[in-house]
């Protein structure tokens, strides 16, 4: 019998129930970091980067070690990836060496191509379209601060067409969070992602709001989130990625319009004085350092969960 391999290429690859299982496991692993050892042996995980990284690299390498495994961390440019070998063949070959592949790359189609050849889970460690591991950590952080996720109001401000906006929308509504995306004209989420998020929201009862009005977007929000205005790979895209974004900066005046106990998230790296001010990032409502830490716990939980899907040995 052929085993169906479960990949994590985008946030809605997990059902609401599955996402809740991963988040519960993440909370448990935060308290007991060595409780799960599915990679004992050691078994290997390939961790490949085609873009820069600090948090993703450190959290995956450390997390894999804590699960008893060995991380093979490589710069994609030093491999044969997409050079002389198809991505599908690469997925087929890597599956003979490692138990999972974690990959930071450009277009989502590259991840889909590798997954089509792989017999082991492929995990999206950031693509142009999605950053689903980050959003698991964001949801874990929100749950720690707010208890239940269902019915929370989250407002993202900035580039609505980037990976974080897309993943917050898709992963957020999966958790039952009402998501508002506020960005300047021309920077709204891609229609096919909105469609997927609306389909998921119909299952969970969550809402999605798209707006170009940052002031109205934050009123009553439980969480404000932002991200760089220029994502990796967009440095020379010819668009003005500063001027139109200024009204979307998270500063103390904007934060004051959110709920009194609102928290502020940022996946980091932050561009202080651009999308967020020092006063907010370093202020009492900022949870960005816990959020960064939770990358470790959430990704460990994800790996444990994905590996258990393969063996049928549910954690
Ligand atoms: N937030 C995030 O993914 O950070 P890195 O780019 O440093 O991995
Ligand atoms: N949107 C950003 C996220 C960095 C973690 C980027 O893709 O560069």
Shape: globular
Order of helices and strands: HEHEHEHEHEHEHEHEHEHH
In terms of quaternary structure, the protein is single chain
Strand order of the largest sheet: 7-6-5-8-9
Strand content range: 5-15%
Terminal-residue CA separation = 23 Å
Number of strands: 9
Number of domains: 2
> What is the CATH first-level class name of the largest domain?
Alpha Beta
Secondary-structure-based class equals: alpha/beta
Mean pLDDT: 96
Instruction: Give a short account of the largest sheet.
Output: 5 strands, parallel
Quick recap:
With 315 residues, the protein is of the alpha/beta class. It has two domains: 11-130 and 295-309, Rossmann fold, CATH 3.40.50; 134-292, Rossmann fold, CATH 3.40.50.1370. The strands form two sheets. It has a five-stranded parallel β-sheet.
Please explain how this structure is put together:
The protein has 315 residues and is an alpha/beta fold. The chain folds into two domains: 11-130 and 295-309, Aspartate/ornithine carbamoyltransferase (Rossmann fold); 134-292, Aspartate/ornithine carbamoyltransferase (Rossmann fold, 3-Layer(aba) Sandwich), CATH 3.40.50. The protein has helices at 16-31, 55-66, 87-94, 108-117, 132-146, 163-174, 191-204, 214-218, 252-255, 278-281, 288-311, and strands at residues 44-49, 70-75, 100-104, 122-124, 153-157, 178-182, 208-211, 223-226, 263-266. The strands form two sheets. The protein has a five-stranded parallel sheet. It has a four-stranded parallel sheet with strand order 2-1-3-4, sandwiched between helices. The structure holds phosphoric acid mono(formamide)ester and norvaline. Norvaline binds at residues 126, 131, 162-164, 227-228, 231-232, 267.
């Amino acid at each position: 019998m052929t085993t169906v391999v479960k990949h994590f290429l985008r946030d809605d690859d997990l059902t609401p129930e599955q996402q809740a299982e991963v988040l519960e496991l993440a909370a448990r692993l935060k308290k007991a970091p060595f409780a799960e050892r599915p990679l004992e042996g050691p078994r290997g995980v390939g961790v490949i980067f085609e873009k820069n990284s600090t948090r993703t690299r450190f959290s995956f390498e450390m997390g894999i070690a804590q699960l008893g495994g060995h991380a093979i961390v490589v710069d994609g440019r030093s491999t044969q990836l997409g050079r002389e070998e198809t991505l599908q063949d690469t997925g087929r070959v890597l599956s003979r060496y490692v138990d999972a592949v974690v990959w930071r790359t450009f277009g989502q189609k590259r991840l889909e191509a590798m997954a089509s050849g792989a017999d082991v889970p492929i995990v999206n460690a950031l693509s142009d379209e999605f950053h689903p591991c980050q959003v698991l950590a964001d949801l874990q952080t929100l749950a720690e601060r707010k208890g239940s996720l269902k019915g929370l109001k989250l407002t993202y401000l900035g580039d609505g067409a980037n990976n974080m906006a897309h993943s917050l929308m898709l992963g957020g509504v999966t958790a039952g969070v009402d998501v508002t995306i506020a960005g300047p004209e021309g920077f709204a989420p891609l229609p096919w992602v909105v469609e997927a998020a609306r389909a998921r929201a119909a299952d969970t009862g969550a809402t999605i709001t798209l707006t170009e009005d940052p002031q109205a977007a934050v009123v009553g929000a439980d969480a404000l989130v932002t991200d760089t205005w220029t994502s990796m790979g967009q440095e020379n895209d010819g668009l003005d990625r500063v001027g139109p974004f200024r009204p979307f900066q998270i500063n103390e005046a904007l934060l004051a319009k959110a709920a009194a106990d609102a928290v502020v998230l940022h996946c980091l790296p932050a561009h202080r004085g651009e999308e967020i001010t020092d006063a907010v990032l370093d202020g009492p409502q900022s949870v960005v350092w816990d959020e960064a830490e939770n990358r470790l716990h959430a990704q460990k939980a994800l790996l444990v969960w994905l590996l258990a899907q393969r063996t049928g040995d549910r954690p």
